[in-house]
Amino acid sequence: MLYKKASLVFALSVLALGHTFSWAIPKGDKRVFITPIASGLVSPVGLTHAGDDRLFVIDQVGQIRIIDHTGLRPAPFLDPSSKLVTLRPRYDERGLLGLAFHPNFAQNGKFYVYYSAPGAPADWNHHSVISEFRVSSSDPNMADPDSERILLTIDQPQSNHNGGHLAFGPDGYLYISSGDGGGANDEGIGHNPQIGNGQDTTTLLGKVLRIDVDTQEPGRQYAIPSDNPFHGSTTDRPEIYAWGFRNPYSFSFDRGGTHQLFLGDVGQNLVEEVDIVVKGGNYGWKAKEGTLTFDPNLPQTGYIDPIAEYYHPEGSAVIGGFVYRGSDIPDLVGTYVFGDLSKLPLSTAAGRLFYLREVAPGQFEVVEFQIGPNDEGLGQVYLKGIGEDVRGELYLLVSSVLGPSGSEGAVWRLSPVPEPGTLNAVLTLLGAGGLVARQRRRKSHR
Questions:
Q1: In what order do the strands lie in the sheet with 394-399?
Q2: Mind listing the pLDDT tens digit for each residue in 370-425?
């Protein structure tokens, strides 16, 4: 999710190319309310379910926590924190980043995680590990920590741009997002010096991967689906499903419609983008950033443009979300809900919640939700993730702290109307600042 400040030269060059766009994200007509579900987490970055009513929260520092009808359970479901690299408390993109339950979890007890571990080539930073675990045979709320089976490791030259999201598709295969290797501009140690890792199909960096976890091939702990774009290749990586990404931090499959894969790709200097990912698609990085030219020395055609994009400083890092398929908020059904880590500058927490409004067939506009009775926004928090429960209801993962430290991490549910105690609970989570301070500022200006 690294943000690198755009230079004046870059901004002027964008304008010179003839692109016109609005910097400000408009307010939409959809309103939601926030219901606090859990607090006291460190840095929650994801939430999913196992086919039942429990919520499984990914805490970046290396714990998977369960929220059930009793609240946040005190003991973690899994704690692989000892396997992780040492995280920097002020800001770090590494850690425990992904979790996905096998489609047949109720029968086989298997689930999959993505974490950042020590051990990489000389002068490189770490490697990403995708592993299988099993639930405990004696306690459904505990994993068996000794059941790990490492499926895949990806060497990472820098600490940032890890991607890290996991999800099973409607085809039963495991999808994995992998960033371009980090740093900036997709260059430097560990990067292809001519075209960057995003365009290099001989590396797993800058890609969406797809593997079959139910079968093993010689030399692999998994199998390659027969219709992967580079299946059978001895040069291009056969795990690749799509490429041309910078930091595909989060993605999801629409559980309705045609089950499209929606992905948020974090931009470099100027653009945050939302993509619909298809098999064999090339999404442009680093030739392009969104629909704009990034590296004019690379070809500028043959790429799939994002379905929507927005610009700094309206955001800093897109947080991919979900097409809403729940029942609590009928007005949202079929709408893609997503957000951004924070409006710039990052020194002030200002997470944002967006949705896509279709303005013409296949053409979408990014608009911001009205939140609460007086449209108070999310308050002074960073939006670190969005999750979905078994019923299709959506949750926000937030913290007032940017890095993986403290205990200010919280889980909020999107609701159609305010629930009892909601306002007081939100104010408690936000502290003395947040909404109270914003209300006071508005009153003083009247």
A1: 318-323, 336-340, 352-360, 363-371, 27-41, 409-415, 394-399, 382-388
A2: 999 999 999 999 999 999 999 999 999 999 999 999 999 999 999 998 876 554 44
The angle, 0 to 180 degrees and rounded to 10, between the axes of the packed helices 422-430 and 434-444 is 100
- 14 phi and psi, to 5 degrees? -65, -45
Domain parsing of the chain, residue ranges: 42-433
CATH 3.30.300.30 describes domain 42-433: no
| Distant-in-sequence, close-in-space partners of 23: CB < 8 Å, separation ≥ 6 | 311, 314
Where do runs of H (alpha helix) occur along 355-421? none
- Helices and strands, counts by H and E, the chain: 5, 26
C-alpha dihedral sign at 104, 106, 112, 113: positive
The candidate with the shortest Cα–Cα distance to 301, out of 244, 261, 238, is 244
Its pTM stands at 0.91
The whole-angstrom separation of Cα 34 and Cα 242 is 35
Beta-bridge partner residues of 440: none
